Amino acid sequence: MYRRRLCLGLCGEFGGTPEEQIKWIGETGFDGFFTGWFPEAPIGKWRQLAGEYHLLYQSIHAPFGHAAALWKEDEDAAAAAVEELMNCLRSCSEHEVPIMVTHAVIGFNEHSPNSRGVGNFEKVVREAERLGVTVAFENTEGEEYLAMLMQLAESYRSVGFCWDSGHEMCYNQNRDMLASYGKHLVGTHLNDNLGIRDFDGRITWYDDLHLLPFDGVADWGKIASRLRRSGYEGPLTFELNRFSKPGRHENDCYGKLSTAEYLAEAYKRACRVAFLAAGL
């Protein structure tokens, strides 16, 4: 579509098993998907289904629950976090998934990136270089951590950037992440939200709504022009949530749709974004 593949991340909120979701994603019209990773994840089975349904297995999203440990002094915890990322990398390599997406950090209260953390991530990047996998750092909270890690892109071909449009609007307070890292862009997590709701600008997980495009306050015409300006020509990948965050109701309307109806609506919105990104 518009010389651009459209991909969608699997999500437990869509219903069904991951295997069923892969089938549904293909039937809806999407060209590919991404998945998460855990030690027992049947990546080989998902790769097989990608082939059967002629879909692109665009990326694997690494676990990020231990990301903060990579920056701290607890060497055992850091080593375990590094090994977790290494195992995810090996799954990518073994099953020919070209990109591993990872967060630089997790948490909203600490703002102290350091050389220790960069060194831990560099171990992962070096292994990625050896395996022929790209490590795509995603913009989340703690963008100062991302800034330090993206400096590795000057030394390693295996380092890229995954741009989350919704995270930019809430976690990064609308600072232009593509202006900073667009030349390293290798993937997207496109979604919409309503920005930061707290009157004093406090950043929280509750604003990361992952709405369908055009259901929030994002300027998708501007997003499209920014993507064109970056020179990125890869797949447009969407990361969407069907259910609302606790205490919020913005996603509730999606629950009234069947899974087929929701995925069809997601595909229509994705096509609109692709149309804009093509400059049509």
Please outline the helices and strands.
Blueprint: E1 6-9, H1 18-28, E2 32-36, H2 43-52, E3 56-61, H3 75-94, E4 99-103, H4 115-131, E5 134-138, H5 143-150, E6 159-164, H6 165-170, H7 177-181, E7 185-189, H8 220-230, E8 236-238, H9 259-277
Parallel strand pairs: 1-2, 1-8, 2-3, 3-4, 4-5, 5-6, 6-7
Helix pairs in contact: 1-2, 3-4, 8-9
Overall SS class? alpha/beta
CATH topology: TIM Barrel
Assess the beta-strand content as a share of residues.
Answer: 5-15%
Distance between the termini: 12 Å
Strand order of the largest sheet: 7-6-5-4-3-2-1-8
How many helical stretches? Answer: 9
Please count the beta strands (DSSP E, at least 2 residues each): 8
Q: Could you say how many structural domains there are in total?
A: 1
CATH superfamily: Divalent-metal-dependent TIM barrel enzymes
For the sheet with most strands, the description reads: 8 strands, parallel
What would you report as the Rg, rounded to the nearest angstrom?
18 Å
Low-confidence stretches: none
CATH class: Alpha Beta
Along the chain, the helix and strand elements come as: EHEHEHEHEHEHHEHEH
Helix content: 25-40%
Q: Mean of residue pLDDT?
A: 97
Using the 3D structure, state the CATH architecture.
Alpha-Beta Barrel
- Shape estimate: globular
